Each structure stands twice: as structure tokens, then as C-alpha cells.
Amino acid sequence: MTSPVVPCAGGPSGVELLASYAAGTVEPAVVWSVEAHLPGCARCRCALSGHVDQQRLVRNRSVLLVRAAIGDEGPVRRLICRFGVHDHLLRLLAATPSLRRSWLLSIVGVLAAVVGEAAAVRYGWIPSGRPGGLAGYSDPEVLAPFLLVAPLIVLAGVAAAFLPVFDPAYRLAVAAPFSGVTLLLVRTVSALAAALVPVVGAAFVLPGPGWLPAALLLPSLALSAFALAAATVMSPRAAAVAAGVAWVLPALLLATAHVPLLIVQRPAQVACAAVLCASFLVLLARHDRFELGWKR
Amino acid sequence: MEEMTLNVSTAALCADGLSRMYGAIRALDEVNLTLDRGITGLLGPNGAGKTTLLSILATVNEPDTGRVSVFGLDPRDRAERVEIRRRLGYLPQELRYHRHFTVAGFLDYVAILKEITDRRRRADEVARVLAALGLERRARTRIRALSGGMRQRLAIAQALLGQPELLILDEPTAGLDPEQRLRFRELLSGLPGDPVIVLSTHQADDIAAICPKVVVLLQGRVRFAGTPSELAATASGRVWAAAERDPGAHLSWRGGDSRWRHIGDNPPDGAELVAPTVEDGYLLLSHAVVSDDRH
Question: B-chain residues within 8 Å CB-CB of A86?
């Protein structure tokens, strides 16, 4: 089928066609022809503007500007959406401070300092002043700072996702119908994943035992879950502090006793698993405490 | 204590015996209020309890005692509380922002919180409120680059997302210049659907210009509820002008014409009485409350 020839706007038939096109009353083949003609004909474009609803044009322009301002889905976001995650849930992550570039860079900086210090001691760049370590790998005491800091980094990321002080628009979230539990879940899971990746990655680089990266997962999860569960019975800030203290105290005690690795070995793993399960049960029973605003 | 005498059973918003304490401070003291569709101004000085009352009505806060009903829904019930929030647009006092957001990005975020999950509908809504507040050209601007007045317009814009039936605006005109305040008044007057609007201010001229109804809140209690003209009328015969300051007046100030304006219970004989304004009525009422407390 050949497409009809589009008369130019210089004649009455051309003007009539443009008016019909603007009104949306022409056949698809004619629409195609007109739209193929318009880019090359300034006279027709000018004539067309006289037949278009200006207010509708302004509205459409505004909507296009908004969509451009909000931003297109990037390749990562599109990939995540293919796994069934809704786009609007991903948009909520934009307000999570522990997913900001500055936060993640800070994590990388802290880990780099801690891992760097351990590596420097291990390879003799910095004298350790200690006797030789256990056979098979370096002195475990060089791992003490990392073992102290790593789960706290994960905890801090999760805490930033649920502490009101980190959400400037917290009161808007409270007054909104969107589920507080869903919001919390989306943010904390994302913050957890974002923090665990650099922590586990740093554990691989660390001059320590090969099982260390895996051994960090359970304590990190348990600490975060404990903080969330505690937030259902006390203020969120107190819950985060309590969780932090619950890790720092034994880590320091074991470090001063020259056995820092005990905090991630089998007995501690069992304890962390128990804490994780208990916290999970508390969260299941009391998750409504995360519905914001009126608590009763 | 006056109460608005509306039909309680049909009122859109009812507050009954609301009280709220912050430590030893009684922010609200047995507040009773019934409001219907239209604009109601909540007038009072800083610390009067306006923000506390509005936060309770917005289901952000809960009272120590008393009950609230919004469109017949009880915020103590979780499902009904969510339903109230679906119909609510809330502007808190001194709203803070995620400063890395753009204007459109922030509104998009708030639209999601209001359960507008469809992308296209969100973009339409964001474009609509941007146009209503004259911020279309700022859609891509980072919030940290906005002036104070523009941030306040943005704050108003987010409250309008979703065309709420109940608008609670805490100090909405703070930081707006006179032209923007006029536009804001026009905006409120032209909102579709005749929503219930409660806005707080300590500017009496905003009340006089925008609000057909006014509630005066002083020291946590409702001291007046009626029309602005009724509030002004409470100062009738108690406002006078003079060339010199009158020490017997409760309040005196010199106006733009260099004459003194006085407010008091006992104008001197032969005083040049002037027509009272809403502000005069409010100041007289405020003075009476403070004096009562001292005694």
C-alpha cells in the first residue's frame, strides 16, 4: 500500500488535513505520512500549532520535563525490575542515606584503612612488636580492628535506614499511607546488601583465614536483626546503640585477651544464629511497631 | 471557651477533649473542635499548641487523652488511620529535605509514599503540582540550590499531591514574599473538590485574607472559634488612635501615619475610636489570657 501524498499547508486541503491530524481523526496511514512530512516542512509545523490545544501542549510539556527530571531507569534498575522488583520500590531507595555514594565511599575508606593496617603489619611494613602468629596464616591479632569494625559498618548502614534522624522528610513518611513496614524492609535489606558487599570483599583481601569472609555474614545479620527487633521495644536510637555495644564489648575483650578470632568462630556463630532467630521471631510478632505515628 | 456549633454528626473533622503533654508542659488542654469543608485558620503565638494539634489531626502524633474523627474515621484503628492518610495532604512546620533530591525527584518520592505507584500517573501528578506552584522550570534543580521561598512552595506542592480531601498546613506562608502569599491564597481558593483545609499561622492578615473561619489557640486551649469579622468585633470599642502614647492601653504602637494605635479595655473619654481588625481582636484576646494566668 502506498502512503498518501501529504498536501502542504499552503493550500486549503493541507490546512484541513492538519486540522484533522491535530484532532486525531485521520487514518493511521495518513498520520504516518503527516509525521514523516512535518520534520521537513516548517510551514506545516507552524500551521499545525494553530490547531493544537495549547493548554494540552503545556501540560504534556510539563509531564515530559518531569519525566526527564526524575530520570530514566538505568541499566541496573531495569535489570532489577526484570526480577519482579517494582520500580516505585527502587525509587524509595533514593532516600536511603546508606545507599548514597558518599556513605559508600566512607565505608570503603574505613575498610581500606583497617585492611591496609592489617596488611602493613602482616608484610612487615609496620612492626607489630608481637611474637610470631599461628601456623598457616598471619598473627590473628592484626585482624582485631577489622573484626571490631566490619559488623559495625553493616549495623550502621541498617541503622541509617530506619533511624528518623537520618530521614529529613520523616514526618512526611509518617503522615503518608505507604506501609511503614514495607518502607523499612526495602531500605534495610538494601542497606544490608550494600554494606555487606564491601565488608565481605575486604575480608577476602585481608591477610586472614580463608573462611573469614563467610564467617562475617552471620554476625552482621544477627547484629542488624537484633537492632531492628530491639527498636520494637525501645527507641530506634537506643536499639542501634545497644546492638553496637553488644558487639563492641566482646570484640574488645577478646582482642585484649589476644584471641580476636573467637568472635567469629563456631561458638560465636551458634550464638549469632540464636540471636538472629530470636530477633526474627520478635520482628514477626511486633512488626506493627514500625507502622509510623499512632502506635496503639 | 467558644466552640464552633456545627452539626457534629456531619462534620468532616472532630476533635474531642484532646490533651497532650510534653514532660511538664501542657501543649494541648482539652481541645474541642469541629470543622467542615472550607478553609479554617488556626491562629496563635509560638508555643500555643498549633503544631501539636495539627500533627495529631495529621495522625503523625497521638494525644494523651481525647478522640479525633476525620471523615468519620478513627485514627486509633490502623486500617482507618491508613484511610485517613490516603485522603491527607500534610505540610509540617519547617519541612526538611533530602538535599540531593531534585525538585521533581522529591515530589516523585512523596507521590510514592502517597501510594501513587504508576509511573505515568506520578509524572502527571508531579507536573500538575509543579505548574500550580510555578515551579515547572525548577523540576531539575537540586533542592539545595533553591531559595527559602521556593523550598516553601515545594513543601506546599508535595502536600497537594494526590488531590487530598484534607489539607493540614503548618505555617504555609512562612518565607513567602507578598506576591507568593497572594498566589497561595488564590491557589487555596481554587482547589477542586472543596477539601477541608486547616492552616496555622501567627499572621492575622493571612487569616483575614484567606479564612472564612478562624480558631484562636492560646496556651493549649481554644479561646475563640468563629469568623474573622466576629474576632475583630470582640475588639469593638476598644481600639483607638491618638497623637501620643496612652499609658493606660494594654498595647500601643505607632503606625505608618506616625499616630499611635492603642488596644485596651478602657479607652479614655473622647478617644478617637477606630474600626478594629482581626489582629486587634487577637491581640486583645491574647492579652486577656496572659493577664488571667498572672492572676
Answer: 117
